[in-house]
Amino acid sequence: MNRKAKIIFLLGTIMITAFTVSAQTFTSNQKNAEAEKIKAACRFAWDGYTHYAWGYDALRPITKQGQNWYDVSFQMTPVDAFDTFILMGLKAEANDAKSLVLSRLNFNVNQEVQLFEINIRLLGGLISSYELDRDPVFMNLAKDLGRRLLPAFHSETGMPYRYINLRTGKTRDSLSNPAEIGTYLLEFGKLTQYTGDSVYYLTAKKAAFEVFRRRSDNDFVGTTIDVNTGKWKNRESQIGARIDSYYEYLFKAWKLFGDTDCYEAWRISNKAIKKYLLKETPNGSFFTRVDMNSGKETHSYYGALDAFYAGILALSGDIRTAQEIQKGNFYMWTHFTMEPEEFDFKADTIIDPAYPLRPENLESCFYLYRMTKNQNYLIMGKKMIDDILKNCKSKAGYAEVKNVKTLKLNDYMESFFFAETLKYAYLLFAPEKTLDLNKFVFNTEAHPLKIVK
Ligand code: DMJ
Questions:
Q1: Which of 48, 75, 81, 173 has the smallest count of CB within 10 Å of its CB?
Q2: Mutational test site, ligand 1, from 184, 238, 423, 445, max ligand atoms within 8 Å of CB
């Protein structure tokens, strides 16, 4: 190449580079506009709830009705939504939600509930609401609920039953799983902080470690276990449904409370996860499923729930692996119109075609953006948000997708759409000071809890 050609080539390269970077750069005005768009979506969804489902657990946005989980309402949507409204600065919506919670939420009812869901959505939501708003009624409700949940742990091993009656304390269903056994450390630890009673944290920690000490020689846990006999009933190991937040809470109990036992359990588990489950492919990295004893692959399935792990790795400082997984997460989202609940990453085929408004992919995108400031995560996040707002929008809110191939909708809006999906989407574009990750840790339902010094 002669001198002139070299200069032209160099200039061309500079221009292409400059164009690529500027095309991928969000100005602060553009970030504001994205944040405002998500706030508007949140207002629209809440309007639907207030018009058609006021006081119910959830909204059915297509037929415009309310729906409860049980015979009585536990105000799932307002509890889950309150802290999101606070973070978004939606004052009127926060007041609405608060008035419902304070005037209607009552745990003194003869009703059996699922311990895990009540803990992550309601107990986590109430504690977080108290920490952001300081109204003592939130904390009184949390303490009352926590006390009613404790008898669930009175099994032969200390691992909890899946269901408990809030008034009688009667328990049911000893066949549980690591997520439904190990996801209490954060909420119960906070109860210990606010009641001064160590029973909460000790109970939650014992349960999680009863799972951990039954791990295989490969350091894996299975998917189903009997909380009385302590025997594994399903030995498939993976990081998605029924196991996910067990790992999440081991790591986050260290972040929130500085519990080094939990960190060590997470470190050992994470080493096994990375050694046996993590699979690199040209489309990004995915986690596979194995038999907990042999380590042999059972299914090469990966899905919406598994996507959270990139966020945990990003928080832990393992950015390189997190980035590879997020590449896989985004492939899963874009390859099939929208993210399916589960796909076979080797066969590249869908196993479960639903998209029930899940947050995990956006959640990991949010953590990676915070940790790297790489604009690509804003681009990824925007694509996912735009797909949700376009494909899930219905008459009075946002509906689950029954099948990502046909985009047919299902008449239900999960409360975690407010608690998590919209929150992570908003925080991705909002100024960092809106939520400082040095001061807060999110529970698995994205309720921010203040880090205890
Ligand atoms: C939420 O209830 C929680 O994030 C839970 O840990 C897993 N699934 C849903 C959201 O997908």
A1: 173
A2: 445
CA distance 382 to 290: 34
Between the CA of residue 233 and those of 175, 241, 325, 403, what are the distances in Å?
8, 16, 29, 31
**Alpha helices in 89-163, H assignment, sequence order:** 91-104, 115-117, 124-133, 136-149
Tokens at residue 245, please? 């937040």
Active site residues: 117, 244, 341, 360
Does the predicted TM-score (pTM) go above 0.90?
A: yes
Please give all residues whose beta carbon lies within 6 A of any atom in ligand 1, as ranges.
120, 244-245, 305, 358-360, 416, 420, 444-445
Q: Which residues of the chain are under the pLDDT cut of 70?
A: 1-24
Give CA 205 to chain center in angstroms: 20
The DSSP bridge partners found for residue 53 are: none
Contact, 382 vs 47, CB < 8 A? no
Taking the centre of ligand 1 as the mean of its atom positions, its distance from the CA of residue 239, in whole angstroms, is 13
Q: How far is residue 368 CA from its own chain's centroid?
A: 15
Task: Say how many Å lie between the CA of residue 304 and the centre of ligand 1.
Answer: 10
For residue 453, the model assigns a pLDDT of 76
Strands (DSSP E) found in 274-414? 278-281, 284-287, 289-291, 297-299, 301-303, 342-344, 349-352, 393-394, 397-398, 400-403, 408-410
Determine the pLDDT at residue 15.
42
Which residue, by CA, sits nearest to atom 6 of ligand 1?
444
- What is the rounded distance in angstroms from the CA atom of residue 384 to the CA atom of residue 403? 16
Residues 6 or more apart from 345 whose CB is under 8 A from it? 279, 281, 283, 286, 288, 300, 301, 302, 328, 332
Q: What is the pLDDT of residue 25?
A: 86
Helices (H) and strands (E) in the chain — how many of each? 18, 22
